[in-house]
Amino acid sequence: QVQVVESGGGSVQAGGSLRLSCAASGRTFSSYNMGWFRQAPGKERVFVARIARSFGSIDYADSVKGRFTISRDNAKNTVYLQMNSLKPEDTAVYYCVAGVAGTYYWGQGTQVTVSS
Questions:
Q1: CA count, 13 A, side-chain hemisphere, 79
Q2: pLDDT in tens, 5-21
Q3: Which of 32, 46, 58, 108 is deepest in the core (most CB within 10 A)?
């Protein structure tokens, strides 16, 4: 069982920045594929960004390209999502997910609210 815990959400004005953190348990964090999803009120959960294991490939949703940056620190068992130039439409609960040997472990989510 892998525990996933997000932190760093909050409220910010449009144009501001936030950095989300996601800590995952386990001794082999470098072998986890990690990702971020978000769910706005009344909408489905959608993909935001992912970073493959061992500093592999990175992908972003078109809506966040150029504004969000995903990174990982394997020594700290942590993945980050740096969010810049935030827009009101970025308001959502952000979820971190760890992909481990074909199983996906989700965190509880952290709220991000962007006001205009």
A1: 33
A2: 999 999 999 999 999 99
A3: 32
Question: Residue 58's CB: how many other CB atoms inside 10 A?
Answer: 13
**One-letter amino acid for residue 80 of the chain:** Y
Contacts of 65 (CB under 8 A, 6+ apart): none
Check residue 27 and report its DSSP letter.
S
What are the DSSP calls for 54-84, one per residue? Answer: TT--EEE-TTTTTTEEEEEEGGGTEEEEEE-
Do 97 and 104 meet the contact criterion of CB atoms below 8 Å apart?
yes
Helix (H) / strand (E) element for 39: namely strand 33-39
| pLDDT tens sequence across 35-51 | 999 999 999 999 999 99
pLDDT at position 54 over 70: no
Amino acid identity of residue 63, one-letter, is: S
Contact 57, 70 (CB under 8 A): no
